[in-house]
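Lab channel / #folding
Pinned by the channel admin:
"Please post every new chain as: sequence first, then the structure tokens as a reply. Keep commentary short and put observations after the output so the thread stays searchable."

First post following the new format, from NK:
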Amino acid sequence: MHIDPGAATPLYQQVAADIRRRIVSGALPIGGQLPPHRELATRYGVSVITINKALAGLVSEGILRSRVGQGTFVAMRPPVAPQPRQGGVTIGFVLRDLSSPYFSLVAHGAQQRADELGFGLLFASSSNRLDREDEQLRRFRDLGTDGLIIVSMNRTYRLTESIQALHDARYPFVMASYTAEHDVPFVGSDLDRAGYLATQHLISLGRRRIGYIGDRVGSDLFEVRAGGYRRALREHALPVDPALAFQYPFEGEWNDYRSGYALGERLAAMPDRPDGMFVFNDLGALGLQDGLLDRGVRVPEDVAIVGLDDIELAARARVPLTTVKQPTDRIGALAVDMVLARIRGEAMPARRFFEPTLVVRQSCGAGLVIADEIPRPERPALARRPGAGSRARAPAVVPPVP
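Reply from TO:
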């Protein structure tokens, strides 16, 4: 079994790649049954959770099919990706933290796309340090990579000197983390729309005093998300109260849960707290939820919460988290395509945005009846899902209204 625990590639991706190779080689024939999950975990020397994640990805690709109570079977032979020429294209992916719940999903989407096209994709972690990020950028260039996908840890949303140098030298790269410079290649989600969807949903459920948590008051991404939040409030003639806008007290994504928890404690002590909250990302929303619950504030009865990203932890929260989903697989895949186009000298738009979608779970209180519910506008951005509530088990993905 070709598994390297010390490699940068996540274990579940290594397991999936090995199973894919065995199917292509014919070692696992079409229609053949895979061993039980626990047996696979023993063979690969990984956890059952890792096996579940690897197989789930292959099932979603249509390569495997799963039958409840019967097992997992080979459904089709995956297409063999074209092999790159000797000395062919290699792309580097600089990630702030390989364990980042959101950006690891983007990286997974990029890896899948690179595999499909037969290009090499190398990963490196900046270990949440700006100097380490600069070092990895230099290292990849020294290794002769043809292009880069960059997830910067810099939350000023401005290019660091090292990334600016790449831009000035016209080196092919794409940012997968937000940057404010409009001429810099970037791929991501429409976060203004995300703020609007989250707030509109809370309003449609009768929430009247809705707050917002961002990273830093006045920062680019604070304002991008806040723009949609404020627009939804104004459309319903609800006040935009600056006292209900909060910022994370601690810096860095690795502290977002801690920041959310601290703000949950703060909100729990407020005599006139918000009845709904839109939070900068899911990590912060999960921290907020735990901070409130640990102080005896009910979610969603007292405070409804909507996050942003739809990371895996969102569905497994103490109260499963309603969130605005960013299409991480498509973001990662397009980042690869954009870098390849720039390597080839092809013209592409500098900035590409995907439409986010709402995923309704229990934390927003979709099944609760709130007194004096606010009427919805004639063309609501979202519609309440009939019958949704605290007993719902599966999320409802609500597509955006054009």
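NK: The two ends are 48 Å apart (CA to CA).
TO: also worth noting, The chain has three domains: 11-74, 90-189+328-354, 191-326+357-398.
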